[in-house]
Amino acid sequence: MQALAQFSEHIARLIPALGSAEFPNLLVAMLRQLVHCDDATIIVYPGTDLPVIEYFEVPEGAADSTLDVYVKGAFLLDPFYLSASRDRNFGVFRLRDLAPKDFKSSDYYKNWYLNCGYRDECGYLIQSGPEGFINIALGKRRPRATFTKPELETLRDIQPTIDLLCQRHWADAGTRRPGVDLRGQLDAALNSFGSSLLTDREAQVIKLVLHGHSTKTLAEKLSISMETVKLHRKHAYSKLEVSSQAELFYLFLDSVMSAGDYNGGDPLLPYLRPGPAR
User: Fold this and answer.
1) Gap between the terminal Cα atoms of the chain
2) Which among 21, 37, 78, 198 is placed 20 to 30 Å from 270, CA to CA?
3) Where along the chain do its domains lie?
């Protein structure tokens, strides 16, 4: 009953705050009282525009620039983003529900999630119109800290209310604005990454490596042997002049973030073209 009373008190403050700058702060305060978490982030994906950070906390020891890199291109590899944008999958999820097997061994995990300080993450994916959506991410940073089953049940129990409040507050997030489809451009750049240098199969392997798939899960997904996966990856690394997943990750980010007015094709072509120093 105490939790219900707390929830009711928070709702009484949230409803009058709809449409105000104070709403994200009050929303996070409520979630943190109902479910233990060390920090939270609210990311709004308006229509087809790039993501907008509506609320964030910088964990102690994390790089301040992490979110800047995220909104410029790293979000394309985020399992939460892919679940909502590609699969239109909405609800309450843990990272482990959405990420491929062995995701924690990927450089995306090492360079994004660990840099955030997260040891476990869960959150809401909330639909907003035909193309927009909202991601409320809750993180735990203590070693071996995980979201418990009762905590997840609490988040799911209040989901209809959270969905409605967020949809009302960010009502324009689902509206497709006229002009360039920025997220669509970056998605196309990711799909074409390395295509000018690699065979179709090599490019397919590299894309899955970027998304956090291990050699084993790659082999299962493509129905080929692990040795064949390793051979394709070796050839691709040689052609891209990288020697590790970390170098591949940064090559991808640099090329996509440098794409500017992307007009199709491999984003590596303009990135690698001789010109003024970057």
Assistant:
1) 59
2) 78
3) 2-8+19-174, 193-261
8 Å CB contact between 96 and 104: no
Please give the CATH topology (third level) of the domain spanning 193-261. Answer: Arc Repressor Mutant, subunit A (1.10.10)
The dihedrals phi and psi of 137, each to the nearest 5 degrees, come to: -105, 130
CATH top class, domain 2-8+19-174:
alpha beta
pTM: 0.87
Report how far residue 216's alpha carbon sits from residue 223's, in angstroms, rounded to the nearest whole number: 10
Task: Check: CB of residue 166 under 8 Å from CB of residue 236.
Answer: no
Which distant-in-sequence residues (6+ apart) come within 8 Å of 163 by Cβ? 124, 126, 127
Tens-place pLDDT, residues 232-278: 999 999 999 999 888 998 898 888 877 666 677 888 887 776 554 44
For 176-195, how does the pLDDT look when each residue is reduced to its tens digit (9 = 90+)?
666 667 788 888 888 899 99
